[in-house]
Amino acid sequence: MTFDEVLCVIGGFxxxxxxxxxxxxxxxxxxxxxxxxxxxxxxxxxHLCRPRWSSDGFPLPPGFxxxxxxxxxxxxxxxxxxxxxxxxxxDGLSAGSCEGxxxxxxxxxxxxxxxxxxxxxxxxxxxxxGSSFYMFGLLIGAVVYGHLADKYGRRIIILVNLLxxxxxxxxxAFSPNFYIYTALRFVVGTTISGVIMNAFVLGTEWTGxxxxxxxxxxxxxxxxxxxxxxxxxxxxxRDWRKLQLVISAPGFLLIFYIWVLPKSARWLVAxxxxxxxxxxxxxxxxxxxxxxxxxxxxxxxxxxxxxxxxKKTYSFFDLVRTPTMRKRSLIVFYLWFANVLVYYGxxxxxxxxxxxxxxxxxxxxxxxxxxRTITLFTLNRSRKISQLAFLAVGGIxxxxxxxxxxxxxxxxxxxxxxxxFGITASLSIIYVYSAEVFPTVxxxxxxxxxxxxxRAGGVLAPMLYLLKGISPKAPMFLxxxxxxLGSALTLLLPETANMPLPDTIEDVExxxxxxxxxxxxxxxxxxxxxxxxxxxxxxxxxxxxxFSRSQTQKxxxxxxxxxxxxxxxxxxxxxxxxxx
Length: 580
Known about the structure:
transmembrane helix, MFS_trans_sf, globular, 3 domains
């Protein structure tokens, strides 16, 4: 019996899985905090060059508004050059660099890393580089923790990353200078990938085939909630150190995860630790109210060790070694890159929309919710069509903004929101889709490399709007082109909706994987085995088969078994009904 069939017996999404997703979703809120907090902690407020003669601050003229200094092309010369005297303010006269520092508007922010360490003018590029370095941490984490999770398990990597995230996140709030702050944030970035990848995979591997899309969508809802909540926190807490502390310190409260977060039984089986896996399965069945019968316990249902391929050691090279895996891997990797480049390219530059930054953050967060919700209705029908359709919606909407005149800002903003809607929905789908494309033996490696490609897009995202120096339309053109190319490439990927997960590379390359419908049992000696069980299989029409409770009681099969055998579902003389 395959692991997917075991899940259908014990419950594909019962109380056990629901509790698991509660534990998985809580950290997602904090991940959203860390991902977008730089929008506020790294914001650059209007500023003036402080005169050399002023030691107690620059006495601005009554009613002078620093925000008048900002223009569409950046700060005026007055914000980066020293006026000759106070009467020269606003006259455009200057006398060199700002040796005395800067005065910053406190109308919106009490303090940011920019105001504390003067990351303006010649040093303004350090702010963008710091954001890219943080995203580079996510890239490194995707590679390192993806490999470690395959070797040591999902649970331990999640626990270690949550601890590191809390420690270094709090440390960043007390950074004495920008370079230490950037280094600490880099470490936090590595843990983001470690938690996102492994929490998602842990949920996926415990969820039945028909409910598996919830593994991605539910966690995305939690991430979206964090997106929205950050707008409120940042509005209430205008000091960057306090805000950094508030989003990081609660991570220490998750220490109780040591006792409540389960291991992945599927991973244990794949690594030939069947005794531990069976104990977890029994526990899950008990919590779900489907305790396994003694007769079923006699059957070694976790027979995947018979697949010699699961005993092998796999490397990242196996993702591209065979033709089908190579095609799938390269396309999935590009989809990760394009989705994240566009998603974070927009989300980290919300100040460019010339609206209240807190309101913009809130609106962008609210867009996440319907985008996540609509995928619940489309993914059950098709992962493939959903992926390519939302990529196309996002790409077309962004390209259309190029042709909208600048004076029609409302239309341009609406199109940008539609594009954000499409790319957010697409990003939700790629988590589910990619996990189902890769087989169990290299799933974590595949998702790890995919996440690494995504983080490469994330590294470039903070610099996306630097393309305005080439052309004001260049950023949106790129935001439209990348999703459209991804939409076309998705046509080459397989459909995975309501399919059993492939366990081995042979399952992916073999022609008959989709139509496999055997239940396998293994016993120590030849004997008569009486089975009382609910049997689930995938027939050629690819729909699950369920038996009613009364039919289960009638299932009394006496079969002579040897060390290896297949009990074909087609040979079971019993009426069954197709799931609605």
